[in-house]
Amino acid sequence: MAVMIETALEHAFNELLKVVIQQTIQTARFKTLLKRLEKTLKGVQPVFYESWTLSKVLDRPEKEITMFIDYMEKGKELVVKCPRINFWNVCQKLLHSNKLIRLNNELLRFFQIEFHPMSTSIRTLIGVYDLADKMDQVLSAISTHDPCMYTRSSLCSVPMLPELIIGLDSHREELKRMLLNDDAQVLVVSGSGGCGKTTLVKLLCHDNDIKDVFGKNILWVTVSRPSSLKTIAQKLFEHYGENHYEFQTDEEARNQLERLMWQMGSDSKMLLILDDVWSESESIVHDLKFRIPGYKILVTSRFLFPRFKSTYELRLLNEEDSRSLLCYSAFPCDGIRINVPDELVNKIVKLCKGLPLALTVVGASLCGQSLLKWKTTYKKWSEGQSILQSNTSVLLSLKSSIDELDDLPIVKECFLDMGSFPEDERIAATTIMDIWVELYNFDDEGMYTSENLIELSLRNLINLAPRGKDTSELEGYCNELNVTQHDMLRELAIHLSSQEPVEERKRLFAEIFGNRFPTWWTEQITQPLNTRILSISTGFISFYILLMLIIDIVLRLISLPKSLIADETFSSIWYDLNAPKVEVLTLNIRSKKYALPYFIEKMHQLKVLSVISYSVYPTELYNLPLIGKLSNLKRIRFEHVSLSSFIQPIYSLGNLQKISFVMCKIGDALMSSSYVPPNLTELEIDRCYDLTKLSSGICDLVNLKKLSITNCHELDILPKGLGSLSNLEILRLSCCTKLQELPKSISMLQSLSFIDISDCLSISVLPEEFGELCGLKVLKMSGCRGLQELPVSITKLLQLEDVICDEETSYLWMNVESDLYNLRVNVVEEDRTESFMKIIQ
């Protein structure tokens, strides 16, 4: 009878191994799980060739062995079914994946306790799942009566992996290459809260290649907060059974720990994992750097640490992996299968924006729920209710990053301001910096505003991306950067800003869909609001004309205040709004036509106005003369809008310091020679494709310090009197491809320190008077292919420190470098594709 059972067990095992190998080759859909199953089967295969181990297996009750044989035969059917699972059926794929994982785990559980502790191949296999090491240490502790050995396994050993890991295999391979090939001793894995940093590093530590390199010298310490060097040292000492040490100071802890690490790392390399390191613990990481051959530190953190040059920034999940993770939480293999349409699942997945924590929590919250619950959940979230309001764990995880800013109150305020901009959009850094300059009394040079942008970026609360290939601090810190933010963090900013009663909030964010205004707007119209920042965004939703007429009639009957002609995407009516203390107003538009609301003329404290259209074509603006009544207005930004001559009243604003026109259809709005804002210090014109020439009136802006005219491809000439701008310090003219020359009067600009003529393809010569610019320090001129020579007077530019150019242009400077002893010629790599896109965009 025993022989029959042995034969049946071996036959079932070999048949299962055979079909697994076959399907691994033929089926791509479950290849990772099939390879894992194949590795497990091959790992336990020696059991059948070593009689003493097989006899241990057969010593089990006959009923148990028979049941396991039956389980393997069903496992064979499960593997054979892999190619039949449709790739588009996400839920069925998840259920099948779970069954393969369970089969693999059952194989391990059945065979693992029979393994000899010194069986190397088996220990390596089980080590992948973090099981055999723990067994060996427990058995050794029992046999040697050494309780410390068991303590080690649990104190600083690598935690076990979750049952299913999705979307991290490629990240693991990239991180492994960095860890094994990079000379840096400290490697930081950085990403926002809940993005899977810790899971990724667990996966890496269980990788066989990593275990081959570092062996058992992989130490895991969760740092979190608060923490100290003494605490970490104590954990490591206890892990190695040294319980009698008590450190009086951090210095003593460091010295003793270095001695211990030298001792333990003498035979093999060592990897120290510091999980969940907060910004205040950066110095601890530095103190744990020891000059020990083969010793490395791997850090996970929500923050970027510039002092450690090697950083891996973990990206969020793609749509396919996001769908798999949510379905794994929502439809466990042993749970109730609800018939939820794939389309609805996909919609909820998109709302989670690839954040693993959100996907897991949302999936779990919908597990076992009715189809109605799924539909109402999606409806609430799609209509503006935040996921954070219904999922406390996601809120707390993300909020902890903001709580850490309590010691930096201005930076925290700056983060909360980010809710003023629409989701999934790139925002010019200068747009945000203009707001902060006025709200927090920062310097107008951009140093402190840039510092706050960088601080938020280092904490993974925003992302900064350069707008050009040769962006550098020479151009004015963050002026040439775009800002993006994960939608969940934007929702967090809005959520945290909305805790007080509406009338007391510092920030109000109004999103208008169709004719649906926020409830607080329609209820509070008679009560003044104390908000300093008001952001109004209009959506894409539109209603039938008949419905709009009915709503209009109803509103007229109840005599609610209103303004006519607004944004056709939501209504022909603006409700009135009494917000006299507003200092910053951002209008985010998505329509062909838009009339500024009449209530803005009552915002007498308004300092910053930003009007940005996200429509396909520039939005036609109306009611522009209203802006002329805002006497305290200092900064205006028009982006992707169509302007008219009615803009002229704006130029009479006595306090106006900066005005920006970005991607605007300007027409004749700048052609009048009478427009002279008396105190304007900065004028920005970017990607205004119908701008052919500038009025001579610009030469009367005697207080102007910064003039930026970029990517205006139809501009072919500058006013001859440009030299009248005696206070001009920065002149940007990059990518004005038809611009043929700089006016001779430029020599009069004695305060000019920065000029950018990059990609001005038509400039063939610089004026001979160029050398009279005695204050010039930075000259950017990459892509000036038409320029054949430099004027002789260039040798007079004794203050010139940096020339930024391409390789071709750099040869023009070879003959004059010896005369300009302060000069550095910085050659940037030419990207012809990027240059071409600049020209045609």
UniProtKB/TrEMBL annotation:
<dbReference type="Pfam" id="PF05659">
    <property type="entry name" value="RPW8"/>
</dbReference>
<keyword id="KW-0677">Repeat</keyword>
<dbReference type="InterPro" id="IPR027417">
    <property type="entry name" value="P-loop_NTPase"/>
</dbReference>
<dbReference type="InterPro" id="IPR032675">
    <property type="entry name" value="LRR_dom_sf"/>
</dbReference>
<dbReference type="InterPro" id="IPR002182">
    <property type="entry name" value="NB-ARC"/>
</dbReference>
<dbReference type="GO" id="GO:0043531">
    <property type="term" value="F:ADP binding"/>
</dbReference>
<feature type="domain" description="RPW8">
    <location>
        <begin position="1"/>
        <end position="149"/>
    </location>
</feature>
<dbReference type="InterPro" id="IPR008808">
    <property type="entry name" value="Powdery_mildew-R_dom"/>
</dbReference>
<dbReference type="GO" id="GO:0006952">
    <property type="term" value="P:defense response"/>
</dbReference>
<dbReference type="InterPro" id="IPR042197">
    <property type="entry name" value="Apaf_helical"/>
</dbReference>
<keyword id="KW-0433">Leucine-rich repeat</keyword>
<comment type="similarity">
    <text>Belongs to the disease resistance NB-LRR family.</text>
</comment>
<dbReference type="Pfam" id="PF00931">
    <property type="entry name" value="NB-ARC"/>
</dbReference>
<keyword id="KW-0611">Plant defense</keyword>
<protein>
    <submittedName>
        <fullName>Disease resistance protein</fullName>
    </submittedName>
</protein>
<dbReference type="InterPro" id="IPR036388">
    <property type="entry name" value="WH-like_DNA-bd_sf"/>
</dbReference>
